Amino acid sequence: MSEYVRNKINSIEFLPTFPHVVDEMMTLINDPRSSASDLARHMDPSMVSEVLKVANSAYFGRKNFRQIATIEQAVAVIGYAGLSCIVLQMPLFALMRGGTGDFDRKGFVRHSLACGTMAKAVSEIFSLGNPNTVYISGTLHDIGIIVIFQYFKDEWKEIDRLIEQERLSRLEAEREVLSVDHAYVGAVLLEKWDLPDAVTESVRLHHSPERIGENGDAYATWLSNKLAKHIDFESGFEDFDTFFKQQRELLHTEMPDKYLTKHHVGVLERGYTQLSEIERFIEETLGEQ
Prior knowledge:
Strand content: under 5%
CATH topology: Hypothetical protein af1432
Shape: globular
Structural class: mainly alpha
Number of strands: 0
Mean pLDDT: 82
CATH superfamily: Hypothetical protein af1432
Low-confidence stretches: none
């Protein structure tokens, strides 16, 4: 069945391509020496269009009285964190475009960006893998779910039936129907898009901690997914201390040899605080995609 999945993904004629420039863009965004002009030179036309569209959206339009016409102006308005959200949302929206049925796009993007943000913080705190790599793998870790929803319609219905009627978890239902789970499906897609092996392998293993071994990128992606699932988006982000107290046991259990200094907690808090801006960004811009 895994070959069936791989062959079907490879045979999808209109499967969106992942812009190869995205990897370069994320490196530039996280390079303090880079400028908005550097970013503009590396963007393809579709990316420029998307960034300008968001910069001129109602959310940012309330802060500006003139039309945003250049990437340099857009970056000044959106900021680098907002730009990274747009860049990494693009493949998710490309896959979701035109889909019908009951799929929580906002919840999916929200969790994806939360996982990417927490992955970067976890990577920096525990020196696990590369922060830029895990930001990408964390954000794209569940992309296989979209692929199943869009391109395996009959299998998706059966998976939903098993979840609702047989009380299976999503992973169990996926493996029952497809013999593989969405982590495998996502990895196959990312291989097709020719993303770095570190990203692809981290996505493949994000539900298989027993197979991670010494792979720091995969470990950071797996751990950040667990953290992101405990973030309560509905109640806001004012109380970091409560969140940290709840997750400290998880971090200590998974990283028993690591000591969390005040600096480490500060890194985690900055990542957590950034999620509040990401949430506002999603609320204001997702409806315009």
